[in-house]
Write a structure and sequence with these properties.
Blueprint: H1 14-22, H2 29-38, H3 44-47, H4 50-55, H5 61-67, H6 72-79, H7 91-94, H8 105-110, E1 134-136, E2 139-143, E3 146-150, H9 178-189, E4 196-200, H10 209-220, E5 227-232, H11 234-237, H12 244-250, E6 256-261, H13 270-281, E7 286-292, H14 300-312, E8 316-322, H15 336-346, E9 357-362, E10 367-371, E11 376-380, E12 383-387, E13 393-397
Parallel strand pairs: 3-4, 4-5, 5-6, 6-7, 7-8, 8-9
Antiparallel strand pairs: 1-2, 2-3, 9-10, 11-12, 12-13
Amino acid sequence: MGHERNTAPAAFPIALKDRERTAPFPQSERSRAFRRRFFPDASAADWNDWRWQLRSRIRDLARLSQIMRLSRDEHTAVAARGGSLPVGITPYYASLMSETDPAEPLRRTHIPVAAEHVRTAGESDDPLSEDDDAAVPGLVHRYPDRVLFLATGFCATYCRYCTRSRMVGGGGEYTFSLGQWQRAIDYIADHPRIRDVLLSGGDPLTIATDKLEWLLSRLRAIPHVEFLRIGTKVPVVLPQRVTRDLVRMLRRYHPLWMSLHFTHPTELTAEVAESTERLADAGIPLGSQTVLLAGINDSVEVMRTLNHGLLRLRVRPYYLYQCDPITGSAHFRTPVERGLEIIRGLRGHTSGYAVPHFVIDAPGGGGKIPLQPDYVLGREGADLLLRNFEGEMYRYPDPPESA
């Protein structure tokens, strides 16, 4: 497999490592059975150690073939894999995947197939033109009052539809360092209009706690930065990372919000319930962002089940993204109308909190554009004509303003 320029996060002091290893964390029977079968030398404490999970990621054809019965398509694509995006799956997340069915949703999102190497019209390595909007390396300043701070190129797992596949996993010309961080911090400090900083990457929660605190503390010290956000999939694919020590550190930097990347109801495990509970109990508002993926979560039933489960975990379904036209993503993308059908099937049929915003992140750097089904039918005299969730028409008195 490809070499990752960004290796696993630097080690913590020994005392902190030992304390985290002994902190209790739930382990489902499915996880225990998977560990005993495929990682027989690993103890329960090893399994619950997030660093062990990162060191033990499934990253090559030999290990994948030991755990899963690969289809010919998967085997060929993994063996011939090129480009910057490596294969990387934590043992925990692999335990949720089918060992025999290549069409299983989570397996499809993480194991390459030949279609990944087919470039279709309209696709790009940087479809959102983030590089063009980089004020300094690793800091995207597109909207007037907020910035995207790319803190690392390392992820716990690598989604095959990743918008930033050009930079994560060590491929390409991107590097991440404290010097680069400082340049970004200086830029933010020099621009008083910036009130909101979103940390992303890569995945910021793969950064060692002390190093992440260094970054958060310096951002929090900037007077005009009102609140911080972290975009992460770690609580979903590596829930063991959400240690008591991490949570104690994060709660020192409120207001701090977190956007979690969920894909499918299969991810709603006892381990994930523990990670989200720890974060929510620390006062961190949690929202989810889900990419709409063909044959994976592109139905009302799957999305309703996922969103209901998220609400039970105190995670607010926030964004449903149309899949970005990243190079080699055509097999993941649905027609836009499918997303509108899902919103139409949720709105009014379930709690409003379970209905996310359906958005397209406009190619070329246009930003997020919300899409809604057509609920406004037009006007008739002084009335606005509206269609409700059952398809029935209603009138709302809305006379034009007098000149």
